[in-house]
Every structure is written in C-alpha cells, then in structure tokens.
Amino acid sequence: MNKKNKIRLLFVIVITAVVCVYFFFHGWVIAYTDDAYIRANISVVTPRVNGHILNIYVKTNEFVKKGTLLMDLDPYPYELRLNVQKAALSQTQDELKSLNIKYETVKKDLISTQEEYKLSLINAERNEKLLKENAVSKINFEMTVATLDRAKAKLIDAKAECNYTENELNAKQIEIESMQAKLALAQYELDQTKIYAPADGYITNFNVMPGDYAGSGQQMFVIIQDDYWWVMANYKESILRHITKGQTVYIHSDMYPYRLFKGTVTDIGRGTSRTKEPNKVLPYIEPTTDWIRLQRRFSVRIDFEDLPKDVRLAEGSDASTYIMLL
C-alpha cells in the first residue's frame, strides 16, 4: 500500500470515528448536555406582618430544623391592637348581658300583657251576652270594651318592644362574633411577629440586622433544603423524543470533577416559552447557536440515586448529564 492510499485510509478511519462519536453523543446511544444545573427545594422566608426586627437568633449558612425561631419583630404595636380588641369585646359582652336581662324582663311583661288581654276579652264577650239579655247596662259593657281596647293596644306595644329587644340582642351577638374574629386576627398578627423556619435546611443569603424594617411579603432570605436534590437538564428538541422516564443518567458536577453520580429521568418538559418575558407560565430556555438553526431546548428532570453522604451539593451549580438511551 503506497503512501497516498495510507493517507486516504487514515482519513476515512478518522472521519468514520468522528461520525460514530457524533452519533454516539447526539441521541443514538447517549444523550449528552452540559446545559444543566443542580437544584434543591428552596423555602423563602417572608414575614406575614410589618415591623422592625427586634432579635435575630440565627446566622448565615447555619443549619436549622423546621420550627426553629429565626427572628422576632417588634410586637408592641400588635400587643396594643390586641388589648384594644379585648377591651372592646369585653365591653360588648357586658352590653349583651344587659340586653339578655332586658329581654327576659320584656318577655315576662309580654306574657303578663297577653294574660291581661285574654281576661279583658273574656269579660267583653261575657258582657256582650249579658247586654243582649239586659243583664248589664250599656255603660258597663262600654267600659269592658274600652278596657279590652287598652289591653289590646298594650299587647301590641309589648310585642313590638319584645321584637325590638330580640333584634337588638341578635345584632349584638353578630357584633360580638365580628369582634371575636377581629380579636383572633389581632392575636394571629401578634403571633406572626415570631418568624420560624418553614423547613429543615441551611440559611442562605442572610443579610438582615436588628432594627431593619421587614415588610409583609418581603423576601428576607432563603432556606435551602438538604434532603432532596435533582438536576434540571436542558436538551435539544431533536433529542427529546428519545428520552423517556426511568432511563439511567450519569451526572458530572464541576464541584466533583473526578466523580460520576448516578440518576434517573423522572420528568420531561412538554413546553417552553418562545419569548423571554416576565411572569410567563411556561419556562423560557435560552437557545444556543448551532451554526445557523437555533434548536429549542426542553427541561428534563433527573433525580439523584443513592447520593453519597460525603457529597455536599450547591443549588444552581453547573452539571453535565449523560442519559443512557439504550
């Protein structure tokens, strides 16, 4: 074999090897991407009420358990509001007691008036019969009728008074229920001046000091949970059809350059946003340039399997993933 033929053969072998390696790493046997990053569950610590920070009990990068007291806000304004609501409720409850006593008295008066009316009605009916028999005078009959009219008017007034007092009593009970709700809200707001850890994890991005003002809903810092880690890998659309749940994945992290970790595909993204705009429902993944055509990328979630105990990962760190397609 002459020199030219050897060069040609070597060229063919190199080209074949390059093609094999290309297809090997581009969706035939292994799906590779370095557009991946390590994720963990993050709990954002946000106060539910406004106030100045009074005490801080933790420091940055400290591990805390769920329910650990992190900081106190100044409780004094909320204590005052709670005391005002307690006093107002107590006063209204006293008014309700007085109304109950009044209502019982009015009901007794109503019963007495009803009996008086019944007696007047019986007398009037009896005298009407006697008048027809000329057993009583017309004057006596008219007097019993007048007595009946007064008893009837008195009964109407008694019923009106009873109904009015009952309505007033119901209104006062509704007012008390409303004030009890306001009291419960004041107690809740006072309780929220103590801020507790929502989950186990490490305090991160902790830049607050006593005296700082904390607003309701303001993101103060985060707690990165250390019990569950995964990789979010972005794969090109041309490879996505070969990826299925349950496939084995080998993960390389720049934090541990000489180690490979094993994982499993647990979820495959079904959509992506075409435009980079805030508050989009679908995620936006920046396309990378491959010569001319820009292929879109879709998120593939990969869970670690049996992560060694000596490994300490970091949220957002870079990773590379090799999904075994066969």
CATH class call of the domain at 28-39 and 226-325: Mainly Beta
Structural class: alpha+beta
The CATH topology name of the domain at 28-39 and 226-325 reads: Elongation Factor Tu (Ef-tu), domain 3
Mean pLDDT: 85
Strand order of the largest sheet: 1-8-11-10-9-12
CATH architecture of the domain at 28-39 and 226-325: Beta Barrel
- Total beta strand runs: 12
* Contiguous uncertain segments of 5+ residues: none
Order of helices and strands: HEEEEHHEEEEHEEEE
Helix content: 40-55%
Distance between the termini: 39 Å
Strand content: 25-35%
**How many individual helices?**
4
Radius of gyration in whole Å, from Cα? 42 Å
What does this structure look like?
- The chain is an alpha+beta fold and 326 residues long.
- The longest helix is centred in the first third of the chain and has 57 residues, at 76-132.
- It has helices at residues 3-25, 76-132, 138-191, 237-240, and strands at residues 30-45, 51-56, 63-64, 69-73, 194-196, 201-204, 213-214, 221-236, 248-253, 256-268, 297-304, 318-324.
- The model has no long low-confidence stretch (mean pLDDT 85).
- Among the domains are: 28-39 and 226-325, Elongation Factor Tu (Ef-tu), domain 3; 75-179.
- The strands form 2 sheets. Strands 1-8-11-10-9-12 form a 6-stranded antiparallel barrel. It has a 4-stranded antiparallel beta sheet with strand order 5-4-2-7, with no helix packed on it.
- Helices cover 42% and strands 27% of the residues.
- Helix 2 (76-132) runs antiparallel to helix 3 (138-191).
